[in-house]
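This protein record is not my work; I was only asked to verify it. Where you disagree with what is written, explain briefly why. This is what I was given:
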Amino acid sequence: MSTVVEVKALGKRYGALAAVDGVSFNVEEGEIFGVLGPNGAGKTTTVEIIEGLRKPDSGEVKVCGIDALREPERIKELIGVQLQTTSLYDQIRVEEAIDLFGGYYRKAVPTATLLEEVSLADKKDSYVSKLSGGQK
């Protein structure tokens, strides 16, 4: 198996608080990997750094061999992330949510095409909060 995510000595501080302190791990191709810990342990910050949404103060991150700190736009095209909460997005319509998240990617796919692909074309004007768990 090959390594698809490599994190080495990752560090992120918010003032005096070390939110992430020397975190290192690898995720192998095909592996199911979870990040567990108490509130405030730095889990979300670590994932946001891997995603390219936040910059670390120290350390290295590679996704599929690509330096995530130097090329965050390429990383965003390779990965998908399940948010821990969608409460903000429950107040927007399905079509708006697709447009919002589609803005993160350079390669544009028409919203109507995506909605058809996931069998939600008939729900495009529905609020996300009204979708079933599987539809979300």
Q: What stands out?
A: The chain has two domains: 3-78, 88-130.
